[in-house]
Amino acid sequence: MAQRYAQRRQLSILPITLSNPLGPHVIAVRANMGASPAVRTVLEALRDAAAAELPENQQALQALRA
Amino acid sequence: MTLPAPPTIATLPFRLKFRQLVLLDALGASQSLRKAAAQTHLTQPAASRAMAELESAFGVQLFERSHSGMAPTVYGNALIQHARRVLFDVQQAHAEIQALRSGSQGVVRLGSLLPPATGLLPKAVGEIKKRLPHLRISLEQLPQKPLVDRVREGSLDIALCRHITDRDDAAGLEQSVLFDEDYVLVAGRSHRFARSRSVKLAELIDDPWILPHGSGPFHAHVQALFLGRVGCMPANVVESSTPLAANLQLGSSTAFSTSCKRRWPSATRSAGSCPYCRSR
To answer: Which among A20, A31, A9, A5 is positioned nearest to B273, based on CA atoms?
Structure first.
Protein backbone atom coordinates (compact mmCIF):
# COMPACT_ATOMS: atom_id res chain seq x y z
CA MET A 1 0.00 0.00 0.00
CA ALA A 2 2.79 2.44 0.96
CA GLN A 3 4.59 1.68 -2.27
CA ARG A 4 1.67 2.98 -4.30
CA TYR A 5 1.72 6.30 -2.46
CA ALA A 6 5.50 6.45 -2.77
CA GLN A 7 5.28 5.89 -6.54
CA ARG A 8 2.85 8.79 -6.77
CA ARG A 9 5.39 10.87 -4.84
CA GLN A 10 2.91 11.48 -2.03
CA LEU A 11 5.02 9.74 0.62
CA SER A 12 8.54 8.57 1.22
CA ILE A 13 9.47 5.14 2.51
CA LEU A 14 12.23 5.58 5.09
CA PRO A 15 15.29 3.33 4.82
CA ILE A 16 14.82 1.28 7.96
CA THR A 17 14.40 -2.48 8.32
CA LEU A 18 11.36 -3.81 10.12
CA SER A 19 10.11 -7.33 10.54
CA ASN A 20 6.56 -8.46 9.84
CA PRO A 21 4.95 -9.89 12.97
CA LEU A 22 1.64 -10.83 11.46
CA GLY A 23 2.63 -13.45 8.91
CA PRO A 24 1.56 -13.67 5.27
CA HIS A 25 -1.88 -13.06 3.86
CA VAL A 26 -3.69 -16.29 3.11
CA ILE A 27 -6.81 -17.54 1.43
CA ALA A 28 -8.87 -19.42 4.00
CA VAL A 29 -11.70 -21.74 3.03
CA ARG A 30 -13.48 -24.51 4.89
CA ALA A 31 -11.47 -27.70 4.51
CA ASN A 32 -14.50 -29.88 3.78
CA MET A 33 -16.20 -27.30 1.58
CA GLY A 34 -16.04 -29.16 -1.72
CA ALA A 35 -15.59 -25.84 -3.53
CA SER A 36 -18.11 -25.04 -6.25
CA PRO A 37 -16.78 -24.19 -9.73
CA ALA A 38 -17.61 -20.53 -9.05
CA VAL A 39 -15.54 -20.53 -5.85
CA ARG A 40 -12.69 -22.30 -7.64
CA THR A 41 -12.81 -19.65 -10.37
CA VAL A 42 -12.55 -16.86 -7.78
CA LEU A 43 -9.68 -18.60 -5.97
CA GLU A 44 -7.81 -18.97 -9.24
CA ALA A 45 -8.35 -15.30 -10.10
CA LEU A 46 -7.07 -14.22 -6.67
CA ARG A 47 -3.93 -16.31 -7.06
CA ASP A 48 -3.39 -14.99 -10.58
CA ALA A 49 -3.79 -11.39 -9.39
CA ALA A 50 -1.30 -11.97 -6.56
CA ALA A 51 1.12 -13.68 -8.90
CA ALA A 52 0.89 -10.88 -11.44
CA GLU A 53 2.07 -8.32 -8.90
CA LEU A 54 5.70 -9.35 -9.01
CA PRO A 55 7.69 -11.36 -11.54
CA GLU A 56 8.99 -13.72 -8.86
CA ASN A 57 5.41 -14.44 -7.88
CA GLN A 58 4.70 -15.37 -11.48
CA GLN A 59 7.66 -17.73 -11.53
CA ALA A 60 6.51 -19.31 -8.28
CA LEU A 61 3.01 -19.80 -9.67
CA GLN A 62 4.37 -21.48 -12.79
CA ALA A 63 6.48 -23.78 -10.64
CA LEU A 64 3.41 -24.53 -8.56
CA ARG A 65 1.43 -25.52 -11.63
CA ALA A 66 4.23 -27.47 -13.31
CA MET B 1 -66.53 -43.29 -19.50
CA THR B 2 -66.55 -44.27 -15.83
CA LEU B 3 -63.54 -43.16 -13.82
CA PRO B 4 -62.62 -44.18 -10.32
CA ALA B 5 -62.80 -41.68 -7.47
CA PRO B 6 -59.95 -39.13 -7.66
CA PRO B 7 -56.92 -39.78 -5.46
CA THR B 8 -56.13 -37.44 -2.59
CA ILE B 9 -53.49 -34.75 -3.02
CA ALA B 10 -51.25 -36.75 -0.68
CA THR B 11 -51.11 -39.73 -3.05
CA LEU B 12 -51.16 -37.85 -6.37
CA PRO B 13 -47.40 -37.07 -6.56
CA PHE B 14 -46.64 -40.78 -6.18
CA ARG B 15 -48.92 -41.68 -9.09
CA LEU B 16 -47.65 -39.05 -11.50
CA LYS B 17 -44.76 -39.74 -13.84
CA PHE B 18 -42.75 -37.01 -15.53
CA ARG B 19 -43.07 -38.80 -18.86
CA GLN B 20 -46.88 -38.47 -18.63
CA LEU B 21 -46.49 -34.68 -18.52
CA VAL B 22 -44.19 -34.74 -21.56
CA LEU B 23 -46.74 -36.88 -23.39
CA LEU B 24 -49.59 -34.61 -22.31
CA ASP B 25 -47.74 -31.59 -23.69
CA ALA B 26 -47.11 -33.36 -27.01
CA LEU B 27 -50.65 -34.62 -27.23
CA GLY B 28 -52.03 -31.17 -26.51
CA ALA B 29 -49.97 -29.75 -29.38
CA SER B 30 -50.56 -32.49 -31.98
CA GLN B 31 -53.97 -33.82 -30.84
CA SER B 32 -52.79 -37.11 -32.33
CA LEU B 33 -51.82 -40.05 -30.14
CA ARG B 34 -49.67 -41.50 -32.94
CA LYS B 35 -47.68 -38.29 -33.36
CA ALA B 36 -47.39 -37.65 -29.61
CA ALA B 37 -46.19 -41.23 -29.04
CA ALA B 38 -43.55 -40.84 -31.76
CA GLN B 39 -42.35 -37.53 -30.32
CA THR B 40 -41.96 -38.99 -26.84
CA HIS B 41 -40.40 -42.25 -28.07
CA LEU B 42 -43.27 -44.41 -26.86
CA THR B 43 -45.21 -47.06 -28.68
CA GLN B 44 -48.81 -46.11 -29.36
CA PRO B 45 -50.18 -48.69 -26.82
CA ALA B 46 -47.73 -47.41 -24.17
CA ALA B 47 -48.78 -43.81 -24.85
CA SER B 48 -52.45 -44.80 -24.63
CA ARG B 49 -51.79 -46.59 -21.32
CA ALA B 50 -49.87 -43.58 -19.95
CA MET B 51 -52.77 -41.25 -20.77
CA ALA B 52 -55.25 -43.64 -19.15
CA GLU B 53 -53.10 -43.69 -16.01
CA LEU B 54 -52.98 -39.90 -15.99
CA GLU B 55 -56.75 -39.64 -16.30
CA SER B 56 -57.09 -42.20 -13.52
CA ALA B 57 -54.68 -40.26 -11.32
CA PHE B 58 -56.78 -37.06 -11.59
CA GLY B 59 -60.11 -38.84 -11.81
CA VAL B 60 -61.23 -36.91 -14.92
CA GLN B 61 -61.29 -37.40 -18.67
CA LEU B 62 -58.59 -35.32 -20.27
CA PHE B 63 -59.24 -35.97 -24.01
CA GLU B 64 -62.22 -36.73 -26.24
CA ARG B 65 -61.27 -39.60 -28.53
CA SER B 66 -62.63 -39.53 -32.08
CA HIS B 67 -61.64 -40.79 -35.54
CA SER B 68 -60.18 -37.36 -36.35
CA GLY B 69 -57.90 -37.30 -33.29
CA MET B 70 -57.88 -36.42 -29.62
CA ALA B 71 -59.29 -33.07 -28.49
CA PRO B 72 -58.53 -31.89 -24.95
CA THR B 73 -61.46 -31.49 -22.57
CA VAL B 74 -61.69 -28.52 -20.22
CA TYR B 75 -59.76 -30.63 -17.68
CA GLY B 76 -57.23 -31.58 -20.32
CA ASN B 77 -56.64 -27.94 -21.31
CA ALA B 78 -56.13 -26.97 -17.65
CA LEU B 79 -53.70 -29.80 -17.01
CA ILE B 80 -51.79 -29.12 -20.26
CA GLN B 81 -51.10 -25.55 -19.07
CA HIS B 82 -49.82 -26.82 -15.71
CA ALA B 83 -47.73 -29.51 -17.39
CA ARG B 84 -46.09 -26.90 -19.62
CA ARG B 85 -45.20 -24.77 -16.60
CA VAL B 86 -43.66 -27.79 -14.87
CA LEU B 87 -41.68 -28.64 -18.01
CA PHE B 88 -40.53 -25.03 -18.33
CA ASP B 89 -39.40 -25.02 -14.68
CA VAL B 90 -37.44 -28.22 -15.24
CA GLN B 91 -35.76 -26.67 -18.29
CA GLN B 92 -34.88 -23.64 -16.17
CA ALA B 93 -33.55 -25.87 -13.40
CA HIS B 94 -31.41 -27.73 -15.93
CA ALA B 95 -30.01 -24.47 -17.32
CA GLU B 96 -29.26 -23.16 -13.83
CA ILE B 97 -27.54 -26.36 -12.73
CA GLN B 98 -25.45 -26.35 -15.91
CA ALA B 99 -24.46 -22.73 -15.25
CA LEU B 100 -23.55 -23.52 -11.65
CA ARG B 101 -21.51 -26.53 -12.78
CA SER B 102 -19.59 -24.39 -15.23
CA GLY B 103 -19.01 -21.67 -12.64
CA SER B 104 -20.62 -19.02 -14.82
CA GLN B 105 -23.43 -18.34 -12.33
CA GLY B 106 -23.98 -18.49 -8.60
CA VAL B 107 -22.85 -16.43 -5.65
CA VAL B 108 -19.40 -16.30 -4.10
CA ARG B 109 -19.22 -14.58 -0.69
CA LEU B 110 -15.78 -13.18 -0.06
CA GLY B 111 -14.43 -11.33 2.98
CA SER B 112 -11.11 -9.51 3.15
CA LEU B 113 -8.83 -7.49 5.33
CA LEU B 114 -7.97 -3.99 4.16
CA PRO B 115 -4.60 -4.62 2.40
CA PRO B 116 -5.85 -7.19 -0.15
CA ALA B 117 -9.10 -5.23 -0.54
CA THR B 118 -7.27 -2.12 -1.77
CA GLY B 119 -5.25 -3.57 -4.61
CA LEU B 120 -5.39 -7.24 -5.32
CA LEU B 121 -9.10 -7.83 -4.82
CA PRO B 122 -10.37 -5.20 -7.29
CA LYS B 123 -8.00 -6.58 -9.94
CA ALA B 124 -9.15 -10.14 -9.37
CA VAL B 125 -12.84 -9.23 -9.32
CA GLY B 126 -12.41 -7.18 -12.50
CA GLU B 127 -10.92 -10.18 -14.28
CA ILE B 128 -13.65 -12.49 -13.03
CA LYS B 129 -16.42 -10.15 -14.15
CA LYS B 130 -14.89 -9.89 -17.62
CA ARG B 131 -15.03 -13.67 -17.99
CA LEU B 132 -18.17 -14.43 -15.96
CA PRO B 133 -20.44 -11.36 -15.91
CA HIS B 134 -23.37 -13.26 -14.37
CA LEU B 135 -21.41 -14.56 -11.39
CA ARG B 136 -22.48 -12.64 -8.27
CA ILE B 137 -19.64 -11.73 -5.94
CA SER B 138 -20.46 -10.46 -2.47
CA LEU B 139 -17.57 -8.56 -0.87
CA GLU B 140 -17.12 -7.57 2.76
CA GLN B 141 -14.19 -5.90 4.46
CA LEU B 142 -13.81 -7.20 8.01
CA PRO B 143 -11.18 -7.52 10.75
CA GLN B 144 -9.26 -10.79 11.12
CA LYS B 145 -11.31 -12.47 13.84
CA PRO B 146 -14.77 -11.94 12.27
CA LEU B 147 -13.35 -13.08 8.91
CA VAL B 148 -12.13 -16.35 10.39
CA ASP B 149 -15.36 -16.89 12.33
CA ARG B 150 -17.54 -16.18 9.29
CA VAL B 151 -15.70 -18.57 6.98
CA ARG B 152 -15.77 -21.25 9.69
CA GLU B 153 -19.53 -20.89 10.22
CA GLY B 154 -20.15 -20.89 6.47
CA SER B 155 -21.51 -17.39 5.92
CA LEU B 156 -18.39 -16.59 3.82
CA ASP B 157 -16.99 -18.88 1.13
CA ILE B 158 -13.53 -17.31 1.09
CA ALA B 159 -11.59 -15.17 3.55
CA LEU B 160 -8.50 -13.16 2.64
CA CYS B 161 -6.85 -12.79 6.00
CA ARG B 162 -3.60 -13.11 7.90
CA HIS B 163 -2.24 -16.57 8.42
CA ILE B 164 -4.36 -18.17 11.16
CA THR B 165 -1.97 -19.53 13.75
CA ASP B 166 -4.37 -20.27 16.60
CA ARG B 167 -5.03 -24.01 16.48
CA ASP B 168 -8.69 -23.73 17.47
CA ASP B 169 -9.37 -20.98 14.93
CA ALA B 170 -7.51 -22.86 12.19
CA ALA B 171 -9.25 -26.19 12.81
CA GLY B 172 -11.39 -27.21 9.86
CA LEU B 173 -9.94 -24.54 7.59
CA GLU B 174 -7.57 -24.86 4.66
CA GLN B 175 -5.13 -22.00 4.19
CA SER B 176 -2.98 -21.21 1.19
CA VAL B 177 -0.48 -18.39 1.20
CA LEU B 178 -1.51 -15.62 -1.17
CA PHE B 179 1.25 -13.07 -0.65
CA ASP B 180 3.51 -11.65 1.97
CA GLU B 181 4.43 -8.05 2.56
CA ASP B 182 6.96 -6.11 4.55
CA TYR B 183 6.30 -3.35 7.02
CA VAL B 184 7.94 -0.02 6.37
CA LEU B 185 8.08 3.42 7.88
CA VAL B 186 6.56 6.16 5.76
CA ALA B 187 6.88 9.91 6.03
CA GLY B 188 6.08 13.03 4.05
CA ARG B 189 8.16 13.83 0.96
CA SER B 190 9.88 16.66 2.83
CA HIS B 191 10.91 14.53 5.83
CA ARG B 192 14.57 15.10 6.73
CA PHE B 193 15.40 11.40 6.20
CA ALA B 194 13.34 11.05 3.02
CA ARG B 195 16.46 10.95 0.82
CA SER B 196 18.78 9.24 3.29
CA ARG B 197 20.33 5.83 2.70
CA SER B 198 19.85 4.72 6.30
CA VAL B 199 18.17 5.86 9.48
CA LYS B 200 17.87 4.48 12.99
CA LEU B 201 14.67 4.33 14.95
CA ALA B 202 16.31 6.29 17.78
CA GLU B 203 16.82 9.22 15.39
CA LEU B 204 13.06 9.42 14.88
CA ILE B 205 11.92 9.05 18.47
CA ASP B 206 11.14 12.77 18.92
CA ASP B 207 9.11 12.98 15.68
CA PRO B 208 5.34 13.17 15.73
CA TRP B 209 4.19 9.59 15.10
CA ILE B 210 1.10 7.88 13.77
CA LEU B 211 0.93 4.41 15.31
CA PRO B 212 -1.59 1.59 15.15
CA HIS B 213 -4.29 1.50 17.81
CA GLY B 214 -3.31 0.18 21.23
CA SER B 215 -4.73 -3.31 20.90
CA GLY B 216 -3.87 -6.25 18.71
CA PRO B 217 -0.68 -7.95 17.66
CA PHE B 218 0.66 -5.16 15.45
CA HIS B 219 0.62 -2.58 18.22
CA ALA B 220 2.37 -5.05 20.53
CA HIS B 221 5.02 -5.59 17.85
CA VAL B 222 5.57 -1.84 17.38
CA GLN B 223 5.88 -1.41 21.14
CA ALA B 224 8.42 -4.22 21.38
CA LEU B 225 10.34 -2.69 18.47
CA PHE B 226 10.64 0.73 20.13
CA LEU B 227 11.46 -0.69 23.55
CA GLY B 228 14.03 -3.07 22.06
CA ARG B 229 15.78 -0.58 19.77
CA VAL B 230 15.31 2.72 21.59
CA GLY B 231 14.29 1.86 25.15
CA CYS B 232 11.17 4.03 25.17
CA MET B 233 8.04 4.83 23.19
CA PRO B 234 7.65 8.11 21.27
CA ALA B 235 5.85 10.80 23.24
CA ASN B 236 4.14 12.62 20.38
CA VAL B 237 1.67 10.04 19.05
CA VAL B 238 -1.58 9.92 17.14
CA GLU B 239 -3.19 6.48 17.17
CA SER B 240 -5.07 5.51 14.04
CA SER B 241 -6.54 2.40 12.51
CA THR B 242 -5.71 3.84 9.07
CA PRO B 243 -2.22 5.23 9.59
CA LEU B 244 -1.40 5.74 5.94
CA ALA B 245 -4.44 7.88 5.19
CA ALA B 246 -3.86 9.84 8.38
CA ASN B 247 -0.26 10.38 7.42
CA LEU B 248 -1.34 12.13 4.25
CA GLN B 249 -3.11 14.69 6.44
CA LEU B 250 -0.21 15.03 8.89
CA GLY B 251 2.69 15.53 6.56
CA SER B 252 5.42 15.86 9.15
CA SER B 253 4.58 12.62 10.96
CA THR B 254 6.12 9.19 10.59
CA ALA B 255 3.87 6.16 10.36
CA PHE B 256 4.00 2.40 10.13
CA SER B 257 2.47 0.95 7.01
CA THR B 258 2.67 -2.02 4.70
CA SER B 259 4.66 -2.03 1.50
CA CYS B 260 4.02 -3.95 -1.67
CA LYS B 261 7.22 -5.96 -1.59
CA ARG B 262 5.13 -9.03 -1.91
CA ARG B 263 6.49 -12.50 -2.00
CA TRP B 264 4.93 -15.82 -2.83
CA PRO B 265 6.53 -17.97 -0.21
CA SER B 266 4.79 -21.29 -0.61
CA ALA B 267 2.19 -23.44 -2.27
CA THR B 268 -1.14 -24.47 -0.76
CA ARG B 269 -0.76 -25.69 2.77
CA SER B 270 -3.23 -27.05 5.25
CA ALA B 271 -4.06 -25.28 8.47
CA GLY B 272 -1.25 -25.13 10.96
CA SER B 273 1.37 -26.64 8.68
CA CYS B 274 2.92 -23.53 7.16
CA PRO B 275 6.68 -23.67 7.72
CA TYR B 276 6.88 -20.00 6.79
CA CYS B 277 5.08 -19.10 10.00
CA ARG B 278 6.95 -21.58 12.15
CA SER B 279 10.09 -19.66 11.27
CA ARG B 280 8.68 -16.37 12.57
So the answer is: A31
User: What are the tens digits of pLDDT across the range B230-247?
Assistant: 899 888 887 776 655 545
Contacting residues of A for B194, CB less than 8 Å apart? 12, 14
Please check whether residues B227 and B175 belong to one and the same domain.
no
Q: What is the 3-state secondary structure (H, E, C) of B96-148?
A: HHHHHHHCCCCEEEEEECHHHHHCHHHHHHHHHHHHCCCCEEEEEECCHHHHH
Tell me which residue in A1, A27, A29 faces B115 most closely, judged by beta carbons. Answer: A1
**Any idea what the CATH number is for the domain that residue B44 is in?**
1.10.10.10
The CATH number for B138's domain is 3.40.190.10
**B280 interaction partners in chain A (CB closer than 8 Å):** 20-21, 23
- Whether pTM > 0.80 for this model: the answer is no
Q: Which domain holds residue B191?
A: 183-258
Instruction: Identify whether B5 is part of a domain.
Output: no
Complex confidence, ipTM: 0.73
